[in-house]
Design goal:
- The chain has about 280 residues and is mainly alpha-helical.
- It has one domain (about 10-280): Glycosyltransferase, CATH 1.50.10.20.
- Helix content is about 70%, strand content about 0%.
- The protein has a two-stranded antiparallel sheet.
Amino acid sequence: MTPLNDLPPGAAFARVLMDVVAAIERAGAAAPPAPELLQLLLQAYAGSGRSDLAGPLEAALTAALDHHRDEQPLVARAAWLVLFVQACAITDDPRMRDAVADLASLVSADRAAADVEPASAAADACLRAAAVVGPRPLVADAVDALEALVTRVYRPGTALAALEAHTALAAALLTAFGATGRIPYAMLADELMQTARRCWWDDASGAFTGTVDADAGALRVVHRLAALQRDGSYRQSAVVSDRVDYLADAGRLLTRLEARLPFASALSSARFGLALLERHAAGFR
């Protein structure tokens, strides 16, 4: 999460946060909004301490706790799991830890036969959940599942079905690298995004040729790769290609997405806002 009293400056983040808060307030307490909306609100509150965000956040988290076991797609359950992991960083409410343990079990059980995006999201979420419920056996099982997924779906240099599949799998591999320190995971994430760039990047527009949601998801991964690209210790240990300047790509993609504001949905706003938070936290300007 971003440090307290430190949020991205500028009109873009203010706009997406306004859209997300309005959507959460419209949803009310009957059912929680999409988990990405709450992730953005939670991180904005943690990064600012703004009292006007506390009420909507508390009400929405309570609704989320009441409904997190509802039948829903695996990718949504994985996003709820990430949300509750993040919530555990700012509250000692035991219900949050219970929800993390519960969802980690559900997500782990459902990921084996899933397609690339939900299976990647599930592995990523379980790796993050280890910070709350402990690394054993969660990390080992998630890494095993991720390696099996890569073996099943990826051939070096060959594109997967969609940009979203590349970004989801690359994101999970980067999280696995953070959890284990195994450099091949980060290098494979780099390879996946270079392949995605060859297939979907449009130099004229400075963006991938995806939707707002797909480009916002890609922006988050590109920021993480840009951080590795400038990490001297990582560069000494890994095979790093200089053919792609990830930070420059992130800047072009950010400009392209900002030009499309306001977005058609609050969910798109939340996904873009999360990318802005991660960019700011990484120190990119």
